[in-house]
Amino acid sequence: DMGGHDTYMHKEIHEQAEAVDRVLRGRIDDRFSTVHLGGLNLDARDARAVRRVKILGCGTSYHAGQIGAQMIEELARIPADAEPASEFRYRNAVVDPDTLYIAVSQSGETYDVLAAVQELKRKGARVLGIVNVVGSAIAREADGGMYVHAGPEVCVVSTKCFTNTCVAFALLALHLGRTRDLSVRDGKRIIEGLRKLPAQIEEMLKQEEDVKKLAAQYADARSMLFIGRVRGYPVAREASLKLKEVSYIHAEAYPASELKHGPLALIEPALPTVAIVPDDDLLEKNRAAMEEIKARSGQILAVAHQEQEKADHTIVVPKNEDELDPILMGIPLQLLAYHTALALGRDIDKPRNLAKSVTVE
Ligand code: F6R
């Protein structure tokens, strides 16, 4: 049942405020400015013994993991990174008992992720699952974890589960942070930011008509470039993947800082750039990157917290706490991919060559 929407993708994009409300529900502890995540099976002593965090996933779940790794580094000051599960599994990675491994999967059935979890467990590592489908193979195999409660996701292309997984990571980062040096005050600040998300998502979705008009302008592009720095970079990567999957337009994501090391050679009027420009410490650097692109007659669509004068168009996203900004910035880019695909008449819920859950290697 699509509940009045023409596609599941559209329905699922519009379910995100509710979905985020669900992942937060019952988990926030205002008294100690932290969160309760009983399913982690990780007591405070275990949490403090973690020396590193390694996040494994595929596709969109891997991108959510990149955002999660940044949140864990920022809020808990634990070195963290994300890697495609398939790569990790085949490079005979060093498995370290002081590292906390986190497997991320919407379906909980992705073969490469499951096999990575099994290999890790065979080597005595502690593995948590951040999973959407309750009782799935990865959820059962992990030592503990958290469900992201996005609800059923039918469209092959992941939207609401990405957003909820990012929120789940924010909760985990807050929890790990508060077992360490994150102050009560910062804990409160993040909790307040999390509570604002559902209303801000609704506010964002009200701009759908504007995004639709922009999508119509870019639908004839043969290729698009997505750029961002630090918090904006995984958002750029996810937006690039979303556009490719659903519209079949070639897209590439690059850190804005790397432009001058190669991709600037591509800039011309026929290659539009989408710039992710959060209002954080890197704002001026991002503006400089947009200037470089403009100087070469490239078109720019900025996704930012305020109108960007260097850009041809700006989608203005509600501002949250810096650490949580990637969550909201992803949403207009889902709409952009959706409306581009719609303008091109694509099979949105079932893109060619793709399957919802990849249970083979
Ligand atoms: C992207 C997409 C895929 C999946 C990937 C992992 O929209 O749907 O990239 O994210 O196949 O799937 P899960 O999260 O089920 O492990």
UniProtKB/TrEMBL annotation:
This is Glutamine--fructose-6-phosphate aminotransferase [isomerizing]. Residues 42-188, 214-351 form the SIS domain. Its main location: cytoplasm. It is found in: Cytoplasm. Catalyzes the first step in hexosamine metabolism, converting fructose-6P into glucosamine-6P using glutamine as a nitrogen source. Keywords: Aminotransferase, Cytoplasm, Glutamine amidotransferase, Repeat, Transferase. Homodimer. It is an enzyme of class 2 (transferase). The active site is at residue 356. Its EC number is 2.6.1.16. It catalyses: D-fructose 6-phosphate + L-glutamine = D-glucosamine 6-phosphate + L-glutamate. GO terms for molecular function: glutamine-fructose-6-phosphate transaminase (isomerizing) activity.
